[in-house]
Amino acid sequence: MAEPVSGSVQREGAAPPILSVRDLRLHFDVKDPKGWPWSPARKLRAVDGISFELRAGETLGIVGESGCGKSTLARAILNLLPANAGSIAWMGREMRGAPEHEWLTMRREAQMIFQDPLASLDPRMTVAQIIAEPLRTHRPGMDAAQTLARVRAMMQRVGLSGQQINRYPHEFSGGQCQRIGIARALILEPKLIICDEPVSALDVSIQAQIINLLRELQQSMGLALIFIAHDLAVVKHISHRILVMYLGRSMELAHKQALYAEPRHPYTRALLSAIPSPDPVRERAKVIELLHGELPSPIDPPSGCVFRTRCPQALARCAQEVPVLRPAGAQTAAACLLLTPPEPRCS
Ligand SMILES: Nc1ncnc2c1ncn2[C@@H]1O[C@H](COP(=O)(O)OP(=O)(O)O)[C@@H](O)[C@H]1O
Ligand SMILES: [Mg+2]
Hints:
It is a single chain. The protein has helices at about 70-75, 100-110, 125-140, 145-155, 175-185, 205-220, 230-235, 255-260, 265-275, 280-285, and strands at about 20-30, 40-55, 60-65, 85-90, 95, 110-115, 190-195, 225-230, 240-245, 250-255, 325, 330-335. By secondary structure, the chain is of the alpha/beta class. The protein folds into two domains: about 15-240, Rossmann fold; about 260-340, no CATH class. Strands 6-7-8-3-9-10-12-11 form an eight-stranded mixed beta sheet, with helices on both faces. It has a four-stranded antiparallel beta sheet with strand order 2-1-4-5. A hairpin with a 4-residue loop joins β11 and β12 (about 330-335). Bound molecules: adenosine-5'-diphosphate and magnesium ion. Magnesium ion (MG) binds near residues 70, 71, 196 and 197.
């Protein structure tokens, strides 16, 4: 069932969205390793009906446990993995079904940075070559002197010294490698950067530096960001709105203040309970709703609400009805049947 994009959780008084994703679905055909070689492939629903909008200068945090489909969603948005259904509108233009040259243009304006900074950089290339690579692909006419000047300016902007320009990735720390990845993503002056767990592999002190750098760049360049993390603590300071995902679906989409002050979905509450509070009074008063068990398989998801098998408040009807994202407050939409009264029965 399509999830409506709730108007109540869009930014107020804002310009039209640069990216609009509606009911996006992507499944992988997978073979059961224990099955017979001739048994048919099964569908693994990695992204199962995600909708959101994003405006210039805005950050959407996307959060959920490992395996819930965050990276697949990021790749589907850029057609690095083709979606099976739904809509991706970029600058008002529908991209699904568009020819490859239009996707190339979009990928020039919407760049991506990755979780493992060192692994995402070619070890045989110098910093200058890595950062200049998108220019070679998308601006083949630019001469060497111009390219070098742009690379130097970008290195300075992300906090790297010009003296490091001829060094190789293995000579840098994880945080510096991520700065190189950010410089490469920014060199074409994109409108959007999709950051797929950009700080998950970094030490906590370095995480804050990279998040602050992304915030500064966002403000100075008017960038939109999609910031993916598996932890609600990481996205708190950078996001305007947050999408909570579980097993390929949206559980809650809310403005940051609403989500942290008054989480509406039991899954969001469980994720928030996992964050230790620096305030001992609040920490003691916190109702701990810990998650039990493992994430179910997206090949054979639970019927009805996919979260019901781990939900402390699940009711019998949660096995029968699929909840859709509905307004659950002025700045929140949540997909939970506990927030929706049951349909009156005709006798
Ligand atoms: N290429 C693939 N083939 C089959 N299954 C995949 C592939 N990539 C990811 N998956 C599965 O899709 C689901 C979502 O994965 P992913 O998007 O990487 O999650 P996340 O980024 O939230 O950790 C997982 O169950 C994962 O095992
Ligand atoms: Mg991932």
